[in-house]
Amino acid sequence: MVGVRTMRHPRTSPVASAITIAPSDMLFFAAIALLPVDGTRLGLSLPYWTPISPWLFAAFALWNWRYLRDTARRFLPFFLFPLLPLVTSVYGWMTVGVHATATAKSLVSLWLAVACLASLDIAIRLKRLPLRTMLTTLFAAYMVAFIAGVVQWLALVPHLDWYTVRVYFSQAMYRVYTNVRPQFLFAEPSYIGMHLYGVLLPVYWMTRDRRIGWLIPVFAVGSIAMGSGTRIVLDSMVALLAWLAATVNFRSKAATMGFVGGVGAVTAAGVGAALFHPRLNALVTEGLLSGDFSMSARIFHMLAPMWAWKHDLKHFLFGWGAGNISDVVRTGYAGARRWYDAHGGAPNWEIDGLENPPAETFTMSAYASFITEYGLICFLALVAMLLIFITVQRAWTRHMVCMMLLATYLYVQFEAYAFYTIPLLVVMAAYDHQHKSPSPQ
Questions:
Q1: This prediction's pTM
Q2: Which residues in 72-101 are b (16+ Cβ under 10 Å) and which e?
Q3: In the chain, what's the furthest Cα-to-Cα distance?
């Protein structure tokens, strides 16, 4: 039986003293409270989202600079890693060029991810801020985001016609989807799965907080019922399989049969969704390249730079440099477009615009973006660093394996380097394995 491991406050260093809430600690709680607010005009623009929390995490870590030596020593490889993309980018900058704004946003995003990890370690291990308060703040924040989505959905109901509400959200959101479907407070509806399964699920597995445990399925089912998008349907099916694989006691015949039944139910739900969900049905019947505007655009955003990979081995290995995705998309566009058209891809204005993309172009995939900017060698170094750290921490539980596989899937269509899933995985490896709670029943 693989037990569920519950995070409590680990043994702190001598730096920490009695549990107190200093004024600077409010930055950390504000960062948690604003986690789901990543698509409004109030945030600072980073590649494909406008978050607030990463900057607050960084401010909290810098304010508590006296603790940084301790946390840097504990997570030294992660603190040093952003230097590697900086070094590999020199080759790309010398051979391709430099786009100052795009370069700054890309490199800053990497440091913001480290700042998130540092602030989590400072708050949990060193300052020992109350975990219950953190979880209450997190629960309340995502409940507010969910209620915002419900309001957006009600505003679209024909006989209600809440025009004022629609105008408010169209002015509040950086990229507006609320005139068609709820996007909650996220940069776009496809971010729902990242937040539910890349933030709330690892937090739930570490803490076993029942409020978070209930919030995840309520948010998922609610967003699907309100027609928030296709990706949340797919993400939820994959996450459900990961949850079943992580929690079922396979030594029990009854539990194993339950797992088989659960897999069958997920499969049946997938078939049902493919039959009755209009966008999924179009993807199944017409194909990924022509069945849905958004899906075909997402595929081409990834395909164009990948086409350049196969024709430039040196840049594929060492990268085209931070901020130079647009140059690579422009280089690979013609070949990728020929392949796309030959395989029945449906043309659309977004794909047409990539022939001469703006400097701050995106790929919609962390893998495509990272390898394009920093090279395959740098990407493999990041993967190796994560795997080695988890191994050294002896944290390879079934939950960790399933969370790693789920995160690997989630980042296929998500590229924000400063997002919170990887820092949470590191925290999960560093703390979660240290305490055991009873096995699931």
A1: 0.90
A2: eebbeebbebbebbeebbebbbeebeebee
A3: 66
